[in-house]
Write a structure and sequence with these properties.
The complex is a heterodimer. Chain A is mainly alpha-helical. Helix content of chain A is 60%, strand content 7%. Chain A has helices spanning 19-39, 50-54, 72-77, 86-116, 128-149, 155-161, 167-189; strands at residues 4-7, 13-17, 122-126. In chain A, helix 1 runs antiparallel to helix 4 (86-116) and helix 4 crosses helix 5 (128-149). Chain B contains three helices and three strands, in the order E-H-H-E-H-E. Chain B has helices spanning 35-46, 50-63, 73-86; strands spanning 23-28, 65-71, 90-94. In chain B, strands 2-1-3 form a three-stranded antiparallel beta sheet. Chain B is globular, with a radius of gyration of 19 Å. The interface between A and B is medium-sized, with 36 and 24 residues.
Chain lengths: 191, 95
Amino acid sequence: VTSAFSRGPRRSILLTLKEHEVDILRNLFSDLLDLLNEDAPPQDDTPVDAWAEQLGLADLNGGALEADPTDPALARLFPAAYPDDPAAAAEFRRYTQPDLRAARRKRLAVVIESLASFSGNGRQRLDAAQSQSWLGALNDLRLVLGTRLGITEDDQEAVGRIAPEDPLAEYLALYYYLGYLQETLLETIAP
Amino acid sequence: VTIAPVELERPVEQEDDAPDRPWTTIVWNDPINLMTYVTYVFQTYFGYSKSKANKLMLDVHQRGRAVVANGGREEMERDVAAMHSYGLWATLQQD
């Protein structure tokens, strides 16, 4: 049986994985979770300046609420909504980024939980909501990995640029593997 | 108080302060998102037909960008936030 997503009985979706795939995916997804946690605004112990907060200036004095991500992979997950208007982009970020980060963490948690319930080679039945979490989390992971690998419009470039003995080569293989997984999931759920 | 002049100067039409001018949600090409995935997102989020979603995806892929929705600013901000959640590279602008 091929490892991947397939249609199960009564509109369910089956995920079939080998033991080493479960291990690899578990590692990759927990790295992604670390990256998302790293990006979260610092839990500051300094008391909030009530005046500054009331005046909407709380983020001006060191609070660094939702800064533009400097890590290119995070910048890809949280793009600027107004490319030509930094003030509007910052405002948009302030209102949307916490929810967006929470949604990403939530679907990642679903995926990590679903991987935890595999033991050895196995098959698992997913409902519609779990499948959506898998779809989103797989895509987030591919965005991060693809950005790290410097994937360009022509995938072949990356293949040629990274020598087989380069440690990145392993990640390139994983990147294509994740694309394959996502493709099988899309074939299974696409309307 | 001053007496109103007989002839009023007509206000110059302002380009920038037209609140009802439609805003657009733009999706930009990127080398990572799968073509099938982008089509899937346009179908499920916007409710577009498969052929319309596919055409928009091809526009993104071949022309580098496509306008996928237009409307009021708040509505477009919701759409852009949703596209970001799907992992698509989206921006909004007033056309």
